[in-house]
What we know:
The protein has four helices and twelve strands. By secondary structure, the protein is of the alpha+beta class.
Amino acid sequence: xxxxxxxxxxxxxxxxxxxxxxxxxxxxxxxxxxxxxxxxxxxxxxxxxxxxxxxxxxxxxxxxxxxxxxxxxxxxxxxxxxxxxxxxxxxxxxxxxxxxxxxxxxxxxxxxxxxxxxxxxxxxxxxxxxxxxxxxxxxxxxxxxxxxxxxxxxxxxxxxxxxxxxxxxxxxxxxxxxxxxxxxxxxxxxxxxxxxxxxxxxxxxxxxxxxxxxxxxxxxxxxxxxxxxxxxxxxxxxxxxxxxxxxxxxxxxxxxxxxxxxxxxxxxxxxxxxxxxxxxxxxxxxxxxxxxxxxxxxx
Length: 299
C-alpha cells in the first residue's frame, strides 16, 4: 500500500477545498463594500465642490462692488469730477451739521467784534459734553419762541437749498438764527445801569471794552433775574442790536433757552485779513456767583 501517495493526495485535496472557502469569506456581503466606496467617493466630491461654491458666493458678492468701482472710476474726467464734488459736499454738510459750521454775519449788531460779511466758525461741540455757555461767550442760537415766532413752512425745496448754502457760509442764516454775547447765565441778576452807566451782574459792574467805540452799555434800563437753564444775551453794538432788552415782554422775558444754542463762535475765518480767534473777555472774571453779590438775586 502506497501510504505516501495517499497522504500527498489528501494534502492536495485539503488545499483545493480551503482556497475557495477563503476567497468566499473575503467576498462575503458584496453590497457593503460597494456602499462604502460610493460614500467615500461622494464625500470626496463634496469636499471638492465646497471651495467652488464658496468661490462662487464671494464672486457674487464682489461683482456689484466691482461694477460700482468701475462706474466711479470710469466714465471720463467729468464723471470723476462730479463724484468727487458730491462726496466733498456730503462731507462738508456732515461736518457743518455736527462739528463746525461756517456762519455768515448778516448785520452790524456785533461790531466791532464781528462785522457784516464775516464768516465765523461755530463750534457745535462746545456745549455737548456737559459744559454750558459762560458769561462773555459769543454764541449762535435759534431764537424761535424767544426772539422770533414759529418758523413758517414755506417752500420745502427752497428751504433745503437755503439751509445747505447757509451750512457752508454761502448764504445768510435763517431769520430765526442770531449771534450775540452772553451777559448773564441762569440765576444771575443783570441790571442797568450803575452811576457810571455800566451794566452790573450780581452787583458787580462790568467794564465792557469789547463794545463798539462810542456805544453806551444800554440806553434802556432793566433789572432781571435770569431763569435757570436760560441766558441773557446782548450785541456788542448796543445801539444797533435787537437783543434780550427788546424782548422783555416775550416768552422767557427776553432770555434764551440753553438748549437752543447752536454753538460758540470761536474763529473769524473770512475774509483772510480778519482771521483771528474770538476770545472770551476778562470783563466777567470778577463777577460773583448768583446771590453772592452786593445786589443779590431776587424773584
